Amino acid sequence: MKILVINCGSSSLKYQLIDSETEKAIAVGLCERIGIDGRLVHTKAGAEKLTFEKPLPDHEAAVQAVLAALTDPAHGVIGSLSGIGAVGHRVVHGGERFTSSVMIDDEVIEAIRGCNDLAPLHNPANLIGIDACRKLMPGVPMVAVFDTAFHQTMPKKAYTYALPYEYYDKYKIRRYGFHGTSHSYVSRRAAELAGLDYGNSKIIVCHLGNGASISAVLNGKSVDTSMGLTPLEGLVMGTRSGDIDPAIIEFIAKKEGKSLGEIMNLLNKKSGVYGLSGVSSDFRDLEAAAGQGDERAKDATEVFVYRTAKYVGAYAAAMNGVDAVVFTAGLGENDKKIRARVCSYLGYLGVKIDEERNNVRGVEAVISSDASRVKVLAVPTNEELAIARDTVALVRK
Ligand code: ADP
After folding, report:
1. Which range of residues forms the domain containing residue 295?
2. Is the same domain home to 117 and 244?
3. Within 13 Å of residue 39, how many CA atoms lie on the same side as its CB?
4. pLDDT tens digits, residue range 140-175?
5. Domain of residue 344, CATH code
6. Looking at the predicted structure, is the pLDDT value of residue 186 above 90?
7. Which atom of ligand 1 sits closest to the CA of residue 285?
């Protein structure tokens, strides 16, 4: 069966058409600048990337453009729309309602809408994508896969903030966590690669991309994760601060005469390694700058590495031990130096990296030495494949 995986943002729409038999993407692409002017970048597996400047006034036009590209006689990959067996939609926030992926119907759409408050930038955009697909592909089964669902197994002690309890009761303010599809896929795959029994294992997943989060996966279930009510909490990120003393917000507001909105923007978009270095949110730029003696760029990556290592320690404590530490996403998959530097803080756990094994990029690998008490792995994440798998499983049910 061919599954169309859709990840719809406010002005962009990413897609992949995945063959569930081979588990390979047969076409991938991206609509950008929706509602502005419009551009579609489409790549058929094994062929050149094609860019079309195309007016995309709204998301329905974007979905229409994607379907046209997929069925195009020259660079398409299916003869007609009947070649799409089902659609899997990435949805950012499922609140407490969604603990796993679900078939989409009117009632599910209303429930997703009910979570909009918790992710005001993302969920409405995800819903627009779902609406557009339902309109243009009536009768095709659709599945929603939530970023938060995997973390719904966290115990109360891990998801509760020490705020007046009424805010949890009234507004459901609690830790939800994100990147769940990635943490789930990567932890399971790491167990396979490390020869661990997933149902009886202690795995820490470091998802280190532009957005970064870390999770403690005990016996195949998430028991803690670093992102919270929103993706702002936890690790130092490309442009997000991660954990800070909340009193800093009032302090800056008073000193700089800034509004709450301005400070939230600063914490989300102008902080992290970008804010620290003043150079870039991209670690490749930071490494280049550090190589030329830029002290702030050097310090920024050390703050990032140190925070990550502290969380690994915290999660080893949360699970009373750890069998495997796994690195994934842009940095985790590609940057051997960052992996080695995080691990340099973990000697007390018996972590030993093998330099040669760690000398890999973008591939699955065990990178710890045989003498290491904890397995360390690099595992490329594949959220689209995980979405496609869930979609097939639900449609076949
Ligand atoms: P997003 O959260 O936007 O999906 P990614 O997972 O793509 O982010 O990660 C982006 C980060 O990964 C950037 O900081 C980038 O420097 C880093 N990265 C990507 N490719 C490489 C590479 N080949 N070598 C080192 N770092 C890389």
Report:
1. 196-378
2. no
3. 6
4. 999 999 999 999 999 999 999 999 999 999 999 999
5. 3.30.420.40
6. yes
7. 16
